[in-house]
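User: These chains co-purify. Model them together.
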Amino acid sequence: MAGILVFVEQRNSEVRKASLQALSEAKRQGAVVSAVLPGSGIGEAAAGLGAWGADKIYVADDPNLELYSSDGYAEVVVKAVEQAQPSAIFFAGTAMGRDLAPTVAARLGVGAIPDAVGLALDGEKFSAHRPVYSGKAIATVDTAGKTPQVVSLRPNVFAADEAGGAGEVVALDGLSLSIRAVVKELLEAAGGELDVAEADVIVSGGRGIKGPENFALIKSLADALGGAVGASRAAVDAGWIEHSHQVGQTGKVVSPSLYIAAGISGAIQHLAGMSSSKVIVAINKDSDAPIFKVADYGIVGDLFDVIPPMVDAINAL
Amino acid sequence: MNCIVCMTSVPDTASVIKVGGDGKGIDESGIKWIVSPYDEYALEEALQITEAKGGEVTVVTYGPDLAEAALRDCLARGAHQAVHILGGEATLGDSFTIAKVLAAAIKDREYDLVLCGFKGVGTDCGQVGQMLAELLDLPHIVNVLELEVGDGSLTAGRDVEGGREKVESPLPSLVTCQKGLNEPRYAALKGIMAAKKKPVEKIEVASLGVDEGSGGFYKVEKLELPPAKATGTIIQGEDDAAAAAAELVKLLREDAKAI
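Assistant: Joint model of the two components:
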């Protein structure tokens, strides 16, 4: 097929894992892969993308691109599209990618497919699987013959495989950046706390943890596994933890390798956010809790009795 | 400060979803249609802004006749007027066509701020706001959790992975609203009565000059229910939690290879 252009996201010059997953998936589709990387002081990051399968790396290195802006980054991607003439454009479905993909698509006069969890290529035409109705159904969709086909890929669903190789870095020039909505600052979460949307392991607490102080117990298990702390809507609505930790229909949709739900009954609204996790573990006192229906493994028992020995057993590995 | 709120009506989030006879859409029998939950934050924010600064809130929806109930709900909560673009059965999930229709209906109106939910619940695309902003040539900010509207500009806060961005944008702008921005109000009886007298402007989508039938930009080929999951390995841990914990960790290590 004609080429795939992959938008690559970086923060502090470090390329996001979800972008490497998108690059790898483009390569697996057998396409000629190019990458576009906007930012400031990103020369080294750009050169490294060759190893992930990019034959050509379009770089826009400009102090005005240090922080994300829909306008600035869209302009860069559109410029790269003019040069690469791809038949598809991939974005990682991060906060940035989910904002940028439709913005770029509209500038190119086409639609976009968000949140793909599976891709199939027939000739030049992609069809994508994506969860709809909060994961209650799966739709197979395409862009109705329009190109370039803009697709965002759900993070942590597609594997990142180093391909080896060296790409050619091409500087994008002639940009006339006109940025209207300007990011004034990016306040990083305290202590570099791992975000559930990026974590490979998530341990979430719900109503069953009984109070805000007991998130320390959830955190002890998350720390033992090098994971992030998540929460159900019930725990967030009770004010026990900030909304940024919420997993579910009105929170974040996550697909970690391991998801542990402790004291979470498994309301549809929660399942919508985590059912695409690779391995799901439930810990709940109520053996009839719906969470056990989606769990690969589970313990019927009191989380306060189960988690401490789990932490010990993990630390002993 | 005039605000335009784009609203879509969606199946109640508690609905059981069944695939319809054509294998491409849902079986709509017995579905209750509601204001898409994120659009409630957009409406509430617009109401608070106009209450503080004056001006009017216009709610715009693109949908079939059944969308009128959700539109009346918005009027009952305090929106001043409503625009109902009739159509949309064939464009479900086609964000770009929907954005084109909304843009055609909005472009000649007077507004300082356009507000949308960050996504329509159900199709779960989260794209119409950005596309509409492009078509109206407006700057946009998505997933807004904090909003301060000043004279001629706004500042907004939105969460990204591991942090929060503070964004400044000139007016007019478009924002998409995320849970946490405000607490949406419910319609009171007085509002429900008043809503009956408020104007709803009806527009046939064909009159907007957007070709609904050009094949669109997003085509659903198939809709299926997710495959049923095999029964998991559940350990009874009521009597000996420590033994259950040890067994679980062993399974995760050796069987699932997840740790």
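Chain B has a mean pLDDT of 94.
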